[in-house]
Amino acid sequence: MARPPASIPRWLAPATAALAGATASVAALGPLGAGLVDHRVPPLLHDRLVGSAAVSLAVLVPLTLAAALLLRRRSPAGPLLALSVALGHWYLAAELVLVPERTGRPGDDEVFLPLFVAVLLLATAVAVGAWSAASTATTRLDRPTGTLVGVGLLMGSGLFVLGRHVPAWLDVVRGAPSAEYLAGPGAWWAVAFQELALLLPVSAAAGIAVLRRLPWSGHAAFAASGLLAVVGAAVGGAAWSSTRGYAGPTVDGATSTSAIGLVTAVPAVLCWVAVARTGRQNWASPVDHPGAGPAPDVGPRASSPAVAAPEARSDRHPGTIPRPRSAP
C-alpha cells in the first residue's frame, strides 16, 4: 500500500521539544517545585495548581517528548501525538494566566508571564504544524470506531463540563456555593468560562464531525480527544491534591472526579487503538520532509526490467496508464 502523502516540516520536532521544556519549566518553577512562582490564588486553588503541575510532569511532558522523538524520526505517528497533546498545553497555560486574582492577593506570577505566553505560542504553533503534517490516511476512522469516538466525545464533554459546572452554578443560584467557589469566585468563573468556551465547543464540534464523517474529522478527533483526556487527568490530579486540608473536596469527591477523568480518556484510547489496528502499513516508512523528494520504493521488484519500468513511471505519475514498450 502506498505511503500517506504527508510531510513533516523540520521545525516541528524542535518546537515540540521546546514546548515540553517550557511546560516542565513552568511546573518546576511553580509550587510543585522550587516555588519561585507565587500564584495569586487562595490556598485551595493553590493545591489544585499543584495537582495540575504534577499531571503535566507525569503525563503531558513525557508524551510531548515522545512526539518530538517520533517527529525527529519522521514517523507518521509523530504529528498525531503532537496534535493530541498540543491543545492540552495551551489549556493548562491559559489557566495559569486567567485563574489568578490580580487584586487583593499577594503573589508574583505576572513576572513569569513571558514564560506562560511562550507555552501558549509554542502550543499553537505545534497544533497548527501537526494538523498540517498529519496524513488523512492515518487519521481516517472506520465507521464503527468513528461512531464510538463521536459519541464518546459528545458524552465525555457533556459529562465533564456540564456535569461539573451546572450543579455548581445551581448551588450558586440557590445561595449555597461550594467551598471551591467561596475560595475564589473569580477563579471559579474563569475556569468555567475556559471549559465552556473552549473544551465543550471543540469536543462537540469534533464529535459531530466524526459522526458525519467529514474530511477533516479524523484530525479533529485526535485533537479534541487529546485535549479532553489531558484536562480530565489534570482535573483529577487537582482534585486529589485539594484533599490535603482546607475545606476542599473529600476523598469521595476526588474519586468521582477521577472516574469522570477516566471516562474522558476513552475517545483518545479508541483513536489510537484504531490507528494501531488499521494503519500499521502507514508506520512502515518515514514521512518526507518538504522538498526532500519521494522516498524510494521498498516494495518487491519485478523480475523483468521491461515490466518494472512502466510500473515505476505509473507510481511517479498517479492516474496515468503505463504504455508498453515497443518492440525493437
UniProtKB/TrEMBL annotation:
Residues 283-328 are annotated as: Disordered. Keywords: Membrane, Transmembrane, Transmembrane helix. It comes from the Bacteria. The keyword Ligase does not apply. The chain crosses the membrane at residues 51-71, 80-99, 111-134, 146-166, 186-211, 220-241, 253-275. The keyword Transferase does not apply. This is Uncharacterized protein.
